Amino acid sequence: MSSGDTLYHRLGGDEQISNIVDEFYERVLADESVAHFFDDVDMAAQRAHQTQFLSAVAGGPVEYDGEEMRAAHEGLGLEPQHFEAIATHLDAALREFDVSDDARDDIMSEVAALEDDVLVR
Questions:
Q1: What's 110's domain CATH number?
Q2: How many independent structural domains does the chain possess?
Q3: Which residues are CB-neighbours of 95 under 8 A, at least 6 positions away?
Q4: Segments forming the whole domain that contains residue 16
Q5: For residues 77-112, b (16+ Cβ closer than 10 Å) or e, as one string?
Q6: What pLDDT, in 10s, does the model give residues 98-116?
Q7: How far apart are the first and last CA of the chain?
Q8: pTM of this prediction?
């Protein structure tokens, strides 16, 4: 794989990743089972962090400087079904933007690897 063929580039770079994140949060905030976790969250900042995170996970020229995953989710009371709902919305947002199956699988594998930290277990 050449450096121009990173997952970041296959996703469409920063602008497209930002669009995917917007779609993702529209889905999350419309889902009553998880929307309440974002009631007191600055969503502009949250979207920026998520765009940065997704870009970094995808191997883009971005370093994620958000809170360490476990610390960021400490005390939220997240359960496995919440993680699953969020992951499902991310997968749906990636599909909405015609992200290839391979690229989607790569991202979802990266996200799945974070489950224990997100659920603080």
A1: 1.10.490.10
A2: 1
A3: 104
A4: 3-118
A5: ebeeebbebbbebbbebbeeeebeeebbebbeebbe
A6: 999 999 999 999 899 999 9
A7: 35
A8: 0.90
DSSP-derived letter for residue 119 is T
pLDDT tens per residue, range 24-72: 999 999 999 999 999 999 999 999 989 998 998 888 988 776 678 888 8
Which residues in 2-90 belong to E strands, given as ranges?
none
Q: Where are the beta strands (DSSP E) in 1-121?
A: none
Other CB atoms within a 10 A radius of the CB of residue 6 amount to 15
Instruction: List Cα–Cα distances, 97 to 39, 61, 64, 81, in angstroms.
Output: 27, 21, 23, 25
The angle subtended at Cα 112 by Cα 80 and Cα 90, nearest 5°, is 85
The size of the chain, in residues, is 121
